[in-house]
Design goal:
Distance between the termini: 41 Å
Strand content: 15-25%
Number of strands: 26
Structural class: alpha+beta
Radius of gyration: 25 Å
Helix content: 10-25%
Largest sheet: 9 strands, mixed
Shape: globular
């Protein structure tokens, strides 16, 4: 990491941007050696007894409780190997160390091979197993159902998941922010629950089985650890110079590991989440709340401190275990790659490729991902992208979003104030638990922050070159910001350019949050008045588009159409689109009525009853379809040859803040992304 040089301030304290003297030249935030205990190392207090949390969930306590004797299975998708005609994945299960290895059985029409791998002989009194699974990939366009049965030696559990055949179009889900952070606990006491949006996702899966579930970051909110672990609570209240010099000793490491482990188990075992993990193979990329709020976005003095480095190292260990079914030692053998981080590449049949990026391991105030990791990503893409139609790139934070340049400057100024002033009551009240302005790390987290925009634009240029060279449509999936919307890159031209011929046409799908509370509506209204269109690289427009035309609650037309604060998740599928009339509707601002047989004077009917009366999923049409605004001048120009046949359909499912009188609570908005001819 490159650090800014800085002298001591006038009070003799080190500037926040100074290198940490205890760890002055780290290559990453993973290489700080563990601190050996000394005679002065304090004795830790035990974790307090668990108590129910304030939100509506009987399964969540603080601190998280110890797990039962058997956990899982949690299924992971890895890739499809078309040369060997195999679907490849894994299952993660845990069994208390006093029990023998359980027995698993798979039942399907095709051949299935699997083998057991022990990841940990004993982690928190549990033995962690990885089951490597290879399933024959059959020709055809149908789903295959894979039944599983586990004999735990005292009881039996069973279930099933679905995989595609070779030529079947993939269906999947995407979401982010699976929990409540520490700043919204009081608001969450109202009527928000952990499970409502998850239950809707599960209901859609029951109607139309998903082949894949993409977790976009903040899977496991660890924020309350700084209130529940006594020593960490003391640490966040320490004076600034103590904070960045404080040791992360072995006993604390064990307590933090226990908290992470129990927190993952508690979240993974929530009924609605467990149901998804046991029936939809997942792929995951992490974000800051899986580590601690703003991880990687703090100045060097704090970022490289023994405490933050140690907390990161423990979070990485548990992330690799629960989110990727691996360990630090085995991660490369299991296909994760990067200079120091852990990225993945998953091929979904012959037409779809997904790359998941690690936006935290190599992050600092200047860098999101190391240049060497970028080289590895594009080298693998150049090798693997052959006749692939769609590429989905998963970033934890939006690759394209609103820019708040004035706010960035203000918070950068306050971040650099003399350390003496951090103890003033008015300053402490407005700072985060880490002694810096509350919104500083939130802004610096973003790809569109001034510190990261050049790196982002370099990556954007390389994605454009890849799209042009390989004739592949690139789409970005991201979460983090607790709202939903669509951004778009496209060729900057005065001439009408059909979407199917624009290699620079790339959409950013923002889906956040599936659980966490949305920001106030007035905050998002303000975002609409910030500049939302600019030109990041030559011959390229970037814009947060007017995607939402009507409110999900009432169906009324709205003024602020770019982002909405409703909790949500994203459904996506590959489909064939040959109907020119539908294509014409996609390319203009067109509203489809979802049910023409009912009274259309009701706002909810005009909007479209896209969930069933009991509030669960439905395959009815969305509120509207929306895509590129460059419509063909004449209907006759929208021929089947221009349309292509490999569309990526995106459907954002939004939770209404109030249920319709008939019980409907979820409505959808659709985006059709054409392939590149």
């Amino acid at each position: 990491m490159t650090n800014e040089t800085s002298d001591n301030d006038k009070y003799g304290d080190l500037d926040a941007n100074s290198p940490n003297p205890i760890n002055p030249t780290p290559e990453s935030n993973t290489d700080c050696p563990p601190v050996e205990p000394t005679a002065e190392t304090p004795k830790l207090s035990d974790l307090p007894p668990p108590v129910p949390v304030s939100v509506k969930s009987p399964y969540i306590t603080r601190p998280p409780t110890k797990p039962g004797p058997a956990l899982g299975p949690y299924f992971q998708f890895i890739t499809t190997d078309l040369t060997k005609m195999l679907w490849q994945g894994s299952a993660l299960i845990f069994r208390e160390v006093s029990y023998d290895q359980p027995q698993i059985k798979f039942t399907a029409e095709q051949k299935i091979e699997f083998n057991w791998e022990t990841l940990y002989e004993n982690i928190r009194n549990m033995r962690a197993y990885r089951i490597n699974i290879s399933i024959e990939l059959r020709d055809g366009e149908s789903d295959d159902k894979i039944n599983w049965n586990i004999d735990w030696g005292g009881h039996i559990t069973n279930g099933a998941f679905h995989i595609t055949r070779r030529d079947q179009k993939w269906r999947g889900g995407f979401f982010s922010c699976n929990g409540f952070d520490a700043t919204v606990s009081e608001q969450a006491k109202t009527d928000l629950t952990f499970g409502d949006v998850w239950q809707h996702l599960d209901s859609v899966h029951e109607e139309t089985p998903l082949h894949l579930l993409i977790w976009g970051g903040d899977q496991n909110y660890i924020d309350f650890m700084f209130e529940d672990v006594p020593y960490l609570k003391d640490w966040v209240n320490m004076e600034w110079n103590q904070k960045w010099t404080c040791d992360y000793f072995d006993e604390l490491d064990q307590q933090v590991e226990e908290y992470h482990f129990n927190s993952y188990v508690q979240n993974w075992e929530r009924p609605e989440v467990k149901k998804a993990l046991a029936s939809i193979p997942s792929i995951m990329t992490w974000d800051d709340h899986d580590i601690f709020d703003g991880a990687g976005s703090y100045p060097p003095l704090l970022h490289d401190s023994p405490m933050m480095t140690g907390l990161f190292r423990t979070a990485q260990k548990l992330r690799l275990l629960f989110q990727h079914h691996t360990t630090v030692e085995k991660a490369r053998d299991h296909g994760l790659f990067g200079y120091q981080g852990y990225n993945f590449l998953s091929q979904c049949g012959p037409n779809l490729l997904i790359v998941g990026t690690d936006g935290r391991t190599e992050r600092d105030i200047q860098t999101v991902q190391h240049e060497k990791s970028w080289e590895m990503i594009f080298s693998k893409l150049d090798e693997r992208v052959n006749n692939i139609v769609h590429l989905i790139v998963v970033f934890p934070v939006p690759f394209s979003f609103v820019r708040f340049k004035l706010a960035e400057s203000i918070f950068e100024y306050f971040k650099n104030m003399p350390n003496k002033y951090r103890q003033l009551p008015v300053v402490k009240q407005t700072n985060s638990i880490f002694g810096l302005p509350e919104l500083y790390d939130d802004l610096l987290d973003e790809w569109t922050h001034e510190a990261h925009i050049e790196e982002r634009n370099r990556a954007l240029t390389r994605f454009q070159e890849l799209a042009e060279k390989k004739r592949i449509r690139v789409t970005f999936f991201s979460g983090d910001v607790h709202c939903c919307g669509i951004s778009r890159f496209q060729t900057r031209t005065k001439q009408s350019l059909a979407p199917t011929h624009d290699a620079k046409l790339m959409y950013q799908v923002i889906s956040s949050a599936i659980v966490n509370i949305p920001p106030p509506r007035h905050v998002l209204r303000f975002a609409h008045y910030v500049k939302t269109k600019w030109h990041p690289v030559p011959e390229t427009d970037e814009e947060l588009i007017d995607f939402f035309q009507r409110l999900p609650e009432t169906g009324r037309k709205i003024i602020h159409k770019k982002i909405l604060p409703n909790r949500n998740w994203c459904f996506f599928e590959q489909c064939q689109e040959k109907n020119p009339s539908i294509y014409r509707a996609v390319k203009t601002k067109f509203f489809r009525l979802s049910n023409k047989n009912v009274d259309q004077h009701l706002p909810a009917i005009e909007l479209g009853p896209t969930s069933s009366k009991d509030g669960y999923g439905s395959d009815q049409p969305p509120i509207h379809e929306h895509s590129h605004n460059h419509a063909c001048a004449e209907r006759k120009e929208a021929t089947e040859d221009d349309i292509g046949t490999q569309t990526l359909r995106i459907r954002l499912w939004l939770e209404s803040t109030k249920k319709h009188k008939e019980g409907r609570q979820f409505v959808s908005y659709e985006l059709l992304i054409p392939n590149l001819l």
